Structures are given as C-alpha cells and as structure tokens.
C-alpha cells in the first residue's frame, strides 16, 4: 500500500515515539545495558551487532553465552586474553559461524585496541565530514578489522567487505547504536560522526516494510536499496533519518498492521 508523503511521515513519527523506550520490543540492544563503561558497551555492541542475524531469541541466547564466557569487564578480557591458541569446550558457535570465528573476532578487536585504543578511533581514521555518507569510513573500518586476522569465508560473514554491495546491515546497526542518541541508541560517537551521514541498517523486516509503504521502488536488497531508503527518510528528518530504523524493523518483528 502506497501512502502520500505527509501520511507516511505522520505514521513513522508516531511509531518512532511508540518504540523509543527501553524494552519496547524484543531486541538484542537491551542486553548491552549489563555493561557500565563506554568501552565495554562499545565492544559488546560490536560483538552483538556482528551476530545479529536470525531470530532475536536465538541472538539473545547466543550473546548471553558469550558474556557469561567473557565476564562483565569485557575490555579487560579482550586486552588480556590469548586468542591465538585454540579455546576448547566453549561452544560459542552460532549458525554459520564457528568457535574459531568468534575468537578470531576477539583477536581482531584486541588488535584494534592495541593499535588505536578504541573502535571509535579506528573508525574516525577513515571518516570525513566532507563525505556524502559513512560508506568510505565504513569501508576503511571493515577492511582494517579483517586485516588484523586471516579471515575465512565464514568470518567475513561477521565483518563483510563493503564493496560486495550487501546492505551491511549489521555494521550499519553498530554505527546506529554508537552515533545516534535517544532512549534506544547510545550516541557515544555523536560528537565526531554526523548522524545525517548514517545508512539505515536494512534487514528483511525493514526491506518489506519499505516496499509496502512505497518508500523505495528498487527490488534488490543491497547497499543501493539502503542508500535510497535513507535518502527517502531524509525527507522526514534530514538530520537524523536513521532514527526510524528501529520502528521500521519492529513493525515487521511484531507483525504490526500498517
């Protein structure tokens, strides 16, 4: 069903208000509140975003196992642990990704901390306010994190090359959490990274709702679809178009009739 622009804005604004509260719908984001420091939340957010595929209950179950293994002081765990030797009996595999992928991810994060101090510092090395959007910075960020290890095909599912033209939903989800600031997103990077340059994280729910509302005509669910949808949402909020992502996604998850 296609709606006129003013009606779509009214609908999305009302849904944004409805969903902009803690635990408004089942989501992996809420699990990040167990951590207290910015560093721990930043690292946990990246890990959770990497594994945010499949249904939310499965994601939450897996990340619960992850954080039982790492403990509450995630930064110290990543800095102090040896991820170059096999870890046995951890059972930290999830769908397409093995235990080895998980510890390779932690090794990549460990190297990033050693070389840059934080994921934010690494991201900012590739960020420029003059860029149209965050894709150049995201490309730099993704390439560097993969360069710290010997990535397998399954590992590249966790941190995909941006050039492959997927929507990079999970990388963009991590950036939404870090850059935007409201009752859902943390906004730790908001002073350095402009929210208007974010790209909406497109998953199957966002894709279907965007087509149903007539926000995008493109049928291919790829990076170009994500860019076109983001540009459309800028008509409703040019400074913060990605604020509608949570609502668009959870309309689908909650099977809300629109």
List keywords for this structure.
mainly alpha, 258 residues
How would you describe what is shown here?
The protein has twelve helices and no strands. The protein has one domain. Helix 5 crosses helix 7 and helix 10 (204-212) packs across helix 12. It is mostly helical and 258 residues long. It starts with a helix and ends in a 5-residue tail after the last helix. Helix content is 51%, strand content 0%.
Structural class: mainly alpha
The total count of helices amounts to 12
Number of strands: 0
Biggest sheet details: none
Low-confidence stretches: none
How much of the residues is beta strand, in percent?
A: under 5%
Count structural domains: 1
Overall pLDDT, averaged?
94
Q: Using the alpha-carbon principal axes, give the shape.
A: globular
Q: State Rg.
A: 18 Å
Question: In short, what is this structure?
Answer:
The protein is mainly alpha-helical and 258 residues long. It has twelve helices and no strands.
How are the elements arranged and paired?
Blueprint lengths: L4 H15 L18 H13 L5 H15 L3 H7 L18 H18 L2 H6 L10 H13 L7 H4 L10 H11 L24 H9 L10 H11 L11 H9 L5
Helix pairs in contact: 1-12, 2-9, 5-7, 10-12
């Amino acid at each position: 069903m296609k709606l006129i622009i003013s009606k779509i804005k009214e609908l999305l604004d009302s849904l944004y208000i409805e969903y902009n509260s803690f635990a408004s719908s089942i989501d992996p984001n809420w699990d990040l509140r167990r951590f207290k420091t910015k560093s721990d939340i930043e690292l946990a957010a990246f890990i959770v975003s990497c594994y945010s595929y499949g249904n939310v209950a499965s994601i939450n179950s897996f990340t619960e196992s992850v954080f039982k293994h790492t403990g509450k002081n995630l930064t110290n765990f990543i800095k102090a642990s040896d991820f170059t030797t096999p870890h046995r009996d951890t059972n930290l595999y999830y769908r397409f990704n093995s235990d080895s992928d998980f510890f390779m991810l932690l090794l990549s994060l460990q190297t990033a901390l050693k070389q840059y101090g934080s994921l934010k510092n690494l991201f900012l090395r590739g960020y420029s306010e003059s860029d149209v959007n965050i894709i150049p910075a995201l490309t730099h960020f993704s390439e560097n994190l993969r360069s710290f290890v010997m990535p397998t095909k399954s590992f590249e599912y966790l941190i995909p090359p941006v050039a492959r033209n997927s929507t990079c939903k999970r990388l963009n989800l991590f950036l939404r959490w870090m850059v935007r600031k409201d009752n859902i997103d943390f906004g730790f990077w908001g002073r350095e990274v402009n929210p208007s340059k974010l790209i909406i994280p497109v998953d199957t729910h966002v894709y279907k709702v965007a087509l149903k509302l007539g926000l995008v005509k493109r049928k291919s669910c790829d990076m170009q679809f994500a860019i076109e949808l983001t540009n459309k949402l800028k008509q409703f909020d040019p400074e913060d178009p990605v604020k509608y992502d949570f609502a668009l996604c959870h309309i689908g998850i909650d099977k809300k009739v629109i």
